Amino acid sequence: SAVSVTVNNIVIVGDPSPGSGNYTCSRTISAGTTGVIAPKTGEVVCFQRGTTYNNIRVVSGASTFTVGATGTGLRPILDGAGAASVINVSGTGVNIYDITVQNTTYGIDVSDAGKNIVIDNVEALKNIHGMRLGAGSGHVVSNCSLHDNSQNGIVFDSDNATKLRETKYSYDGLPYGDPPTKGDITQEEKFLQGGT
Q1: Nearest CA-CA partner of 152 in 133, 174, 172
Q2: What is the CA radius of gyration of the chain?
Q3: pLDDT digits 0-9 by tens, 121-154
C-alpha cells in the first residue's frame, strides 16, 4: 500500500516498484569498473542491470544530473566497500533511480547544500544508514526499500524536521538495529505523529 509523508519539505511516498525508466542514458558504466564516477551537469550516468559494481562511488557537486540503470534484470548493485557513501551529492536537481546501494556508512549521502534531490526505486541495505538527507529542501524519496541497515533507513539532518511516521522491525528475537540472522520478523513497532 502506498504511503505519502512530508518531513521538512521532503516528500516520501510509495512502495518499491520495478523501475522508473523515464530517462535516456548518456554514459553507461562498464561491468568491472571501480573507483569514483563524477557525473557532470546534465549527464545521465547508467549502471548495467544485473551487475554488481564493487568498490565504486558516485561523487559530484554538479547539478541536474541523473544516476540510473540500463538493460534488463535486477537493479545494479553499487557496493561501496566500506567507504563513507556510495553516492554523495551536493548539487541541485539531482535524480537517483533504479539502483541498489550497499556496504557503506551512508548508502546515499545528500549534503546540506543539496536541494531538490529525487531518489526513486532505490534499495539501500547492508549500510550503517540507508541514506542521509541534509538540511537542504525539496527532496523527494519514493518507491524505496531501505532494509537491513545496522542503524537507520533515513537520517534527516535538520534542526526543524518532524518525524511523521516510522516503522521499526526487530528480527529473530534480536534487539532493534541488530542485523537479522534468519530474517523472521519478531516485533513491529509503529509510530504515527498525531495518532490514528
Answers
A1: 133
A2: 16
A3: 999 999 999 999 888 888 888 888 888 899 888 8
